[in-house]
Amino acid sequence: MPNLAVVGAQWGDEGKGKVVDLLAPRFASVVRFQGGPNAGHTVVVDGVTHALHQVPSGILHPGVRCLVGAGTLVDPDRLVEELATLRAAGVEPAGRLVLSRRAHLILPHHRALDGALEARLGKGGIGTTRRGMGPAYGAKVERWGVRLGDLARPADVAAHLGRMLDAGLGAWLRELGAGVPSPGEIEVLAARWWEALGEHVGDVSRLLHEDLREGRPILFEGAQGALLDVDFGTYPFVTSSNTIAGGIPASLGIPPRAVHRVVGIAKAYTTRVGAGPFPTEEHGPLGDRLRDAGGEYGTTTGRPRRCGWFDAVAVAHAVRVSGIDALVLTKLDVLGGIDPLRIAVAYDVDGERTEWFPSTAAELDRAVPVYEELPGWTEDLSGVRRLEDLPAAARAYVARIEELAGCPVSLLGTGPGRGSEIVVPGTLLAEWLAS
User: Fold this and answer.
1) CB 193 within 8 A of CB 76
2) Does residue 46 carry a catalytic annotation?
3) What is the extent of the structural domain holding 252?
């Protein structure tokens, strides 16, 4: 069976966790390749909601190995809490969860820096989760970082941090009022973290190459979405990693040809969290209705999401930059009772029409969406499991999205739980799910 990537095609929160959970039993390994505890995947099983943050969504299937790659960030304290929550729910990660030795850590001063920088920026802030992602990825690039494998020698971690504090990190922290960590305190923490997590630390790249050599199928799980990619998203209102499918090989140490197919996840409308441009955002009653009906509150932070109409310009951009072969359209049921429906088919930027996603946030902020209206439907879709049973208006809405995005829709979400989806016959995921 070919290897498959599941990535976001909007600003994140599209429902990737549910799709990964659906597909996971057909794969030997499920692998997170970027992001960290700022990303949350929600999976509902038998009415029980599981909120996953750093652990891959395949963990809920006992026979699936879950890997966390070098391109991710790990917050040790939060991961220990997440593992305890899973065990309390009857899910045992021991022997199935492997964290890359090369994955960088979010340390306490990274969280302090994140909060201090956002506070300094005030109304001009990025709208981060203040979970330390940007400073930790920054430390990685500046070579001030600490990796999971380093925790095996706590004294070395303390010595490294001491050198970095003396070289300028300490002065920067003091200037921002973020607090300066003590190397001795970090040494104690490193020992505690290694004791709790050491059994899960290994060489993820090696394990993946063994899977590739033996022909065992791999499912690559992305976090956030293409519009938050650090290079191809709405910079600077983005996350600090490459969320598109092209980030998979570099983050995992595998060849690009190992990613055989890419599935992009998009909602039937659009949401985003934090600051930054959002051309199709609705500030009035419609935005409130989508938020309430769709339960649009962050899995990790609980923040209310900004909501608006489906943006085909943005999704077509995601299809291009990630090489998406098939789309999953989630939360189609949320649109019931809204008539007419709107889809942004182009933007007007400074008096010129474009169907291409702008490369700067300033241009996108000036973009006025050009809408196309389609009839809505009143029927409840929550029990629909076959494409032919959808109302004609819903089928027409999906068909128009396929045309505008330049990509077929392979799966439709009609509810939050397992089994609440429509598999489109003859498409990419139909083949996987039938196997």
Assistant:
1) yes
2) no
3) 4-85+204-434
